[in-house]
Design brief:
- By secondary structure, this protein is mainly alpha-helical.
- It folds into two domains: about 5-75, no CATH class; about 80-145, Winged helix-like DNA-binding domain superfamily/Winged helix DNA-binding domain (Arc Repressor Mutant, subunit A).
- It has seven helices and three strands, in the order βααββααααα.
- It has a three-stranded parallel β-sheet with strand order 1-2-3.
- Helix 4 (about 85-95) packs across helix 7 (about 130-140).
- The model is unreliable at about 75-80 (pLDDT under 50).
Length: about 150
């Protein structure tokens, strides 16, 4: 999937909103979820979304919001990135070619925690691919060429 942005009416998913977006987010961590609100709804339905566009927003406001969503991934510079120790450990493991389950077993954490760390790494670095994360790890001296398989 090449898309970075998913705009969806939350009422279409009903009560399956959170489960659907959670599963989709696990499968495609690069996706930004935006709710297109077309009617009155409980605001708790909007919690899984990264942003909201309302049907009564002006054209300029929608354009402004879309620009914010687009820049949220690409405006990060390497100098601004601050990964936690655990995120760095997960990044190194990913760069070495380990799968989520292997990382979880080695670090004694759940696979869900690994996925959360990977989402945070992607959000913080703006890098969406394993190869990109590997290059990032190499350039930031987190791994050595000899560590790669």
């Amino acid at each position: 999937m090449d898309a970075n942005l998913l705009i969806i009416d939350p009422t279409l998913l009903g009560f399956h909103n959170k489960e659907f977006l959670s599963q989709l987010g696990k499968e495609h961590p690069q996706l930004t979820f935006v709710a297109l609100v077309t009617s009155c709804l409980d605001h708790s339905m909007l919690t899984p979304y990264n942003g909201v566009i309302e049907i009564n927003d002006t054209r300029s406001k929608i354009i402004s919001k879309m620009n914010e969503f687009a820049q949220s991934d690409t405006s990060k510079s390497v100098d601004d990135v601050e990964l936690s120790k655990r995120e760095t450990d997960v990044l190194v493991a990913v760069a070495k070619g380990m799968m989520n389950k292997e990382i979880a077993d080695e670090m004694n954490i759940s696979i869900h925690t690994v996925i959360s760390h990977r989402k945070n790494i992607t959000r913080k670095t703006g890098i969406k691919s394993v190869s990109g994360l590997t290059v990032y790890a190499l350039l930031n001296n987190l791994i050595d060429e000899k560590d790669l398989i």
